[in-house]
Amino acid sequence: NWLVSGNENTAFSADSAEVTLAPGTLQISAVRLVHPVFRLRADANGVVVPSLQAWIESLAKNAVPGAQSRFVSADLAIRLDVAQAIVTTTGGIVTLDFDARIAGGKVESFHASVRPMVLSLNGNRARIAGARIAAQATPSGYAVTAQVSGAFDRTGLRAAGIKADLALGGLDWSSAQAGISVLVPQAHLKISAEEIGTNVPTEVALVG
Q: Per the count of CB atoms within 10 A, which of 54, 69, 73, 93 is most buried?
């Protein structure tokens, strides 16, 4: 066990890290991080880790395709317990509390909740009262569910008591030089609002 410490400006910190070696070898087969905290920045160009971005880009630039470290198992299992991601965006700060399981470079499960927040951008203001996201790997792809509640304001329009439920089945994706291809065989989205401009209850349901 190691203590990985930092302050509010540190890109990454954790209460402890547990490393498991494969029997009879020096090869790392599993890593568990307890209360890891990631500080990220997101904008139109993507998500970056400010204080580590130059190092991350240098690793990617010098990486050898197909190369595998003899000290790390190809089936490395990573477990993040009571994790937190603090993401600074142009509209405000988003904080996620989550748990995740990763094996062989693929996410096996992900469960997260978004803390209440207010995001403001270009005259639009969204208040998130609560949000939950869950993803689980299945033989046919990922099963994903998400629930969001809150309110939205902009000039001439106000929606309160918004609730959205999303369910995806068989989600999968692949990447190539041309871009990323996403497959979603099953999708269900339901959105409702207690008030949109007036006090008339409104509900919209989309099924695909």
A: 73
For 58, residues 6+ apart whose C-beta sits below 8 A from its C-beta are none
Summarize pLDDT for 13-41 with one digit per residue, the tens: 888 889 999 998 888 999 999 998 988 88
Structural contact between residues 132 and 110, judged by C-beta atoms closer than 8 angstroms: no
Please compute, for residue 163, the number of CA atoms within 13 A of its CA located in the half-sphere on the CB side: 6
Express each pLDDT in 145-182 by its tens digit.
Answer: 999 999 999 877 889 999 999 999 999 988 766 677 88
Task: State how beta strands 106-114 and 117-121 pair.
Answer: unpaired
Structure-token match 């403001």, residue found: 120
Q: 20-30: buried (b, 16+ CB within 10 Å) or exposed (e) per residue?
A: eeeeeeeebbb
